[in-house]
Write a structure and sequence with these properties.
- By secondary structure, the protein is α+β, with helices and mostly antiparallel strands.
- The protein folds into 2 domains: 7-209, no CATH class; 212-325, no CATH class.
- It is built from 11 helices and 17 strands.
- Strands 2-1-5-6-11-12-4-3 form an 8-stranded mixed beta sheet. The chain has a 3-stranded mixed beta sheet with strand order 13-15-14, with helices on one face.
- The longest helix is centred in the first third of the chain and has 20 residues, at 56-75.
- It is elongated.
- The mean pLDDT is 84.
Length: 332
């Protein structure tokens, strides 16, 4: 079970932190930045991280582009909502308190410091082919918090020009070979600011971090807790967990419903009524007042219907009397 979280207070604190960041980004005087490449090469940090050395002008240029990109995103009229594992409302900025999940905090805190001795020296073995993302660490004057901006590799790449690309030499009025060029994408996928993770690209956050492991663990824990209810049981729970683990979307829905406390409120008798009303393919029977749910773990539709049943995927509007499928939900 997850600890009870005061989401309104959390949202207010996260919004305040973003407002403070906006002020910092609006005045970059005295700021310094360091860029790191991360390649998936085993567990040793020295094999995975490389610090990039920039000229002062290039460092300033990239830092300003990142700041402008972030400010543009933060100034949009976007919702600021808690990260709930499940689908995200389009345009929302999701936040995650680092102290809420130690696994995520450990992952984002692995970014090296500015004195990291392992410097990028050009192509070395398979390093470049395994680069997943780069992180820009920004330090503001008289500010204890650092800003870490994570961006997936995407269009960022090292191009070996071999004379096919050129730069213009203003002094000599001539073109010359450009050499090796690394193109940086300055648009943020997610950032870490103080005690908060702010997520702009949900899928990138999921693919780059270890959140899928956390999601799978939360989904399993949710089923274990749910199965302990006095009015129901779940048959073949072990294989059902395995089937859900192979389908990230279903695991996200379960983890999200658990995070929001939806599973705790479910009652077996009401679930059965929804099965009948929606004609869901979820086998069940009632024995001595206890409902036994028996979805076949080898039947994709039964597994999907069962998860959707538990997470309130099917909602009824009391005003219009219409039925909805609602993958994205935030509680008031």
């Amino acid at each position: 079970m997850c600890a009870v979280i005061d989401e309104k207070k959390q949202k207010a604190n996260a919004t305040k932190a973003l407002d403070e960041l906006k002020k910092r980004l609006g005045d970059m005087r005295g700021a310094r930045s360091t860029v790191f490449l991360f390649a998936k090469r085993g567990r040793e940090p020295k094999n995975c991280w490389r610090r990039m050395k920039f000229t002062a002008a290039l460092e300033k240029g990239l830092r300003e582009k990142i700041a402008n990109s972030l400010l543009a995103r933060l100034n949009e009229q976007s919702e600021v909502e808690p990260f709930t594992f499940d689908d995200v409302v389009s345009g929302a900025i999701c936040f995650w308190a680092k102290d809420e999940t130690v696994e995520v905090a450990d992952w984002v805190d692995k970014v090296p410091t500015a004195d990291w001795p392992h410097v990028f020296k050009g192509p070395e073995g398979d390093f470049l082919s395994k680069v997943k993302f780069h992180v820009t660490t920004v330090k503001f004057p008289n500010e204890p918090r650092e800003l870490n901006v994570f961006t997936h590799r995407g269009s960022s790449s090292l191009v070996r020009s071999a004379g096919l690309m050129a730069v213009f030499d203003v002094a000599k009025h001539e073109f010359k070979p450009a050499g090796d060029i690394y193109q940086f994408d300055h648009r943020p996928d997610f950032i870490v600011w103080g005690d908060w993770v702010f997520i702009f690209q949900h899928q990138r956050f999921e693919s780059l971090t270890n959140i899928r492991v956390v999601t799978s663990d939360r989904a399993e824990a949710a089923l274990d807790t749910f199965e302990k209810k006095s009015d129901l049981t779940i048959a073949d729970l072990k294989n059902l967990k395995a089937a859900i683990a192979k389908r990230p979307q279903l695991a996200r829905r379960l983890a999200g419903a658990s995070h929001q406390g939806i599973l705790e409120m479910q009652v077996a008798e009401k679930l059965v009524k929804r099965i009948e009303k929606k004609k869901l393919s979820v086998p069940y029977k009632k024995v001595r007042g206890v409902y036994h749910f028996a979805p076949d773990s080898n039947d994709a539709k039964q597994v999907t219907d069962f998860v959707n049943l538990l997470v309130d995927y099917f909602l009824h509007s009391p005003s219009s009397d219409l039925e909805y499928r609602a993958p994205s939900k935030f509680k008031d």
